[in-house]
Amino acid sequence: MDIRRFALGDGSTSSQALSSIVFTAGFTTAVILPFYLYLFGAGIFWEFLGIAICTLVVWGVESYPLMRYTRKSKKILTLPGYYEYRFKSRGGLLRLFASVEIIVLSIVLSALFVKELGIIIGTLFDLDPIKCMAVVLLIVSVLLGYFGINLIFKTAWTKAVILVLGIAFILLHMVFSVGIEGLIRNLMSSDITGSVSRYLNVLYHDGKLLEPEDYISLISLGLLASGMPFMLGIFFAEKGPKSINTGRRIIIVFGIVLFEFAFFMGTVSRGYLYPEARTNSLSRYFYMLFDKMYNDVGAGRIAAFILLLIIIIGFVTALEGAMHVVVTSIYDDIILGGRLVKVNPKHVRRDIMIISIFSGIAILLAGAYIEQMSISLIITFITTLGCSISPTIFLSLVWKRMNAAGCMAGLVGGLLSVPFFKFTPCFLLGGKRVSLCDMLGINSVIPSMVTTILFVILVSLLTKKPDEEIEKEFRAIKSRISE
To answer: Among 43, 48, 118, 312, which has the minimal tally of Cβ within 10 Å of its Cβ?
Structure first.
């Protein structure tokens, strides 16, 4: 197996499309959506509207040109490789910086994912979370190192079916075990909103009427998926426009079905768990669900283990995608692109396996030493990666004047702007210094993305215009001449 087959594989169109949407929705929709609905109510709908908008932008605007650039170059395997080819960057600095940024952030994200999964499994079965993490990483590292992206492609249909049918089975079990009247009575007696109508009203979030800035924050969080390297890298494997059109139809159907089942599962779970006190701990939430179903015996025990399977699939799909990006980028961008060592083509499979295992060890060490564990921490790192990658990719595909310097500025700006806007106390509010996000009552996504876009535009306009060859290729790809 060479690095190209590891990175792009030989999966079918449907498998590639499902891999993309399962990666995006497996964790966010199957795991996070039910928990947030249980915790906050239906106002979380707006965040998933952002994910839907993002999916349409990625598949409708970015998919074709990314595929065409890959077909034209015949060597693009990663986003850093795309940046280098798109801007004909010399010296390898842009590719090196982009790859290091993606690798480091992806390793941290993987550590956060696998640690939360370890905590959930450890809580359910009274096991050591670190040992659970080690087992998960060992299995994923070895399988991914041996099969490459084909492991993700070939299991996409199985994961998709389990997620949809499994969540539907759990939903039906909760409804029939408590009854519709019982669920409504429990929701009305719960401490979330005081009424079923407010809990299910999308104008409310956490029992409070949404303000304009709340809509901005919730929708903008969904846009981060457009900056996930694995999701964008799927298009490097596409064979042509027909396969992308097929993929678009598949993800629309699957996305809607999965969202509907997960939405109602999360809504019903609060009434099902009553009178348990509300918890903002993801691991505690799933522990309560698992325990309640398991004690129902019969179909309840089946539903409990299906729930466990869904949790594992949700986290592992995100972990697989992130680790695939890490291994591919280390090999193609750092080792081959940076010409650090001379690679023997006969030993590529061995080298990839070694990199995959050492990546797993790095993720395990990072996870073991991350003491603060919360969903908000995961979201912060997703935001940092998304706000750096998403605007630079989008502008590179729609603006011919963008150059390598602008791309580098965007990557740096996106990387720094998230912690700056989220944590830096620059403003006085009520006699206390707070960050811009705290003052405006929004998250860091919109100001960070705007900052990234401004960095790209300003630096591109202040530096040398791209060569005519680059602009000519951009016009050809944008006008679909390459097809």
So the answer is: 312
pLDDT in tens, 17-56: 888 888 888 898 999 999 999 988 888 899 889 888 888 8
Query: CA-CA distances (angstroms) from residue 169 to 166, 175, 284, 294, 310?
Result: 5, 10, 21, 14, 11
Token digits of residue 411:
């990557």
Rounded mean pLDDT of the chain?
Answer: 88
Torsion of CA 265, 269, 272, 277, to 10 degrees: 180
Q: Before 345, cis peptide (omega within 30)? A: no
Quick one: angle between helices 156-178 and 241-273, nearest 10? Answer: 30
Please tell me the chain's helix, strand, coil percentages from 3-state DSSP, rounded to the nearest 5. Answer: 80, 0, 20
Lookup: tokens for 34: 């039910």
C-alpha of 471 from chain center: 32
Surface-to-core class of residue 258, CB atoms within 10 Å of its CB (0-12 exposed, 13-18 middle, 19+ buried): buried
Token pair listed for 352: 């990839």
Q: How far apart are CA 403 and CA 460, in angstroms?
A: 6
Dist CA 275 CA 79 (whole Å):
49
With tokens 């073991």, the residue in question is 368
Tokens of 205: 């979030």
Q: Where are the beta strands (DSSP E) in 167-249?
A: 204-205, 208-209
As given in the structure block, the two tokens for residue 409 are 């500025």
Q: Which residues contact 174 (CB under 8 A, 6 or more apart)?
A: 183, 265, 268, 269, 272, 303
Q: Which residues of 8-27 are buried (b: 16+ CB within 10 A; e: fewer)?
A: bbebbbbbbbbbbbbbbbbb
The lowest-confidence range among 58-62, 219-223, 251-255 is 219-223
> Helices (H) and strands (E) in the chain — how many of each?
23, 4
Quote the CA–CA distance of 194 and 187 in Å, as a whole number.
Answer: 8
Note the Cα 188 to chain centre separation in Å: 34
Q: Is 55 within 8 Å of 24 (Cβ atoms)?
A: yes
- Per DSSP, 188 falls in state H
Q: What is the DSSP letter of 19?
A: H
Distance CA 254, CA 248 (A): 10
Give the global pTM: 0.91
Which residues does residue 209 pair with via DSSP β-bridges, in sequence order? 204
- The model's pLDDT over 161-199, given as tens digits with 9 standing for 90+, comes to 999 999 999 999 999 999 999 888 888 876 655 577 778
Q: Output the six-digit token pair for 77.
A: 């395997």
Q: What is the pLDDT of residue 482?
A: 45
Task: Give the C-alpha distances (Å, rounded to integers) separating 193 from 39, 121, 197, 213, 367.
Answer: 10, 30, 9, 21, 36
